[in-house]
Amino acid sequence: MKRMYCREIRESYVQEAEVAGWIHDIRNLGGIAFILLRDRTGILQLTLLKKPNKELFKHLTTLTRESVIRTKGKVQRSEKVMNGFEILPESAEVLSVAAVPLPLGVADKVESELDTRLDNRFLDLRKKEVRKIFYLRSLLLKSVRRTLENEEFIETHTPKIVAAATEGGTELFPFRYFEREAYLNQSPQLYKQILMSTGFDRVYEIGPAFRAEGHDTVRHLNEFTSIDIEMAFSNHHDVMDLLERVIVEGYETVRKEAPELMEGMNIPENVEAFPRITYTEALDIAKKKGLRIEWGEDLSMEALRLIAGESPDLYFITDWPDAIKPFYAMPGEDDRTCRSFDLMYREKEVTSGAQRVHDYELLKKRIADRGLDIEDFGFYLNAFKYGMPPHAGWGLGAERWVMTVAGLENIREAVLFPRDMHRLVP
Ligand code: ATP
Ligand code: MG
Which member of 26, 54, 272, 397 has the lowest number of beta carbons within 10 Å of its beta carbon? Predict the structure, then answer.
């Protein structure tokens, strides 16, 4: 007999079925007992009568919560149970007995501290509302791949072990690489740009990025998943258009393919384009609301909250001061801005992108002007010397996106096994 999922029992009418899963709860009333069996699709009631099979009754009702069993029995329609169907077990096999007490309750309604939940993530992930986040994450990533593949992007993988910092800076994890020092890459930036000189034209990468952020916030991780694209013969507006399509398609995919995930999600209806306001305009909003901030300063959380108050959920802030954006951003028409943008969800940054500098001499000068060592960037600069088209791209943080869609307060909830300053296990 083929194992069926709990939900299939509800949906197709079979007389006999085999199901397997975790014991969610047991209610023993003496002559009759109810066992709630849980698998990835939901919960199914097993109804046991003591009379016909005393042995089986005792065997199953004395099991601990979260033990794993496989059972075969008659399927019976019942108005009283959750799914309209129950199983009357005729035989059962105990596959694994769960120890007591559980370090974290699965069936109980009580809210646990996030730290306790993360310490016992394997149990935490047995909860429906926690698993929902990862179904959402998987679906959004599937949608991103589909959208990009449809637009003729190819999937690439660039090294995570690198010799030079992407942007210089201190946010790097150094480690010993044989006799030398190496780093975990903080972004595929330099490599995806090198690929623009090869003619691949449109590339994407969904992979880990490592940042030694030395601060504890609810929106920073030390290892996160970055969705990166780079596109040749394009400017910043072209890649903002693409980002809109990627995000809107993501929402559509959830709406169409997983309506059961929609409840409680921040998925707006009928959005097509996100407004694009310049940094200068954004600054003016914050200033009008009484914030003292000078042109050229980075937008603080306080400023971003004020700006978000005057904007729809999703909006771009464009044309940033050149000095606070990386050297590879293309300078604007004036002498103080650059062609870079952030996509915001309310006050949170979800994506950064830009048209890039593709001129070798200008790039070299910008690296030097930032006090970085040209020698360190030789492997990168070389790709600009022998034919490099204009190009643009962005990096979308998968967890930031999931966090905004699922309305999570803490980014750690959007990762299976988060890495932060204090957490290296599990
Ligand atoms: P922030 O200002 O929010 O710290 P950033 O400007 O340093 O972010 P970028 O270098 O622009 O980040 O990275 C591109 C995207 O990667 C960000 O928009 C964000 O979605 C995501 N990201 C960056 N750093 C982190 C992090 N430490 N944890 C999770 N996601 C991150
Ligand atoms: Mg950024």
Answer: 272
